[in-house]
Amino acid sequence: MTLLEFILLLVIAGICGGIAQALAGSSPRGCLVSIVLGFIGALLGTWLARKLGLPEILTITLAGKTFPIIWSIIGASLFAALLGLITGRGSSSRWKWRRRRFWE
Fold this sequence. Notes:
The protein is mainly alpha-helical. 71% of the residues lie in helices and 8% in strands. α1 packs across α2 and α2 (31-52) crosses α3.
């Protein structure tokens, strides 16, 4: 794997992680967290798809290895939502403030 392929893989994982954070309703936590979330989502999503017998949808092949875009987003969304439930920091404080102010 060349340096360019590695950087492209990091960018793709970061985009998938960022989309997953937006879908899960969690606050944006930075580029590195999005990249890690994208890779964890790829592992969790492909594992879940194999257990359910679902095909790989929209994959990108870099250096002979495939990266599942859709399953990465789904797995990362599930993981981010689970982390939000466990830690209690599911949505950003900005939205909590607006909800509180709106209902008061």
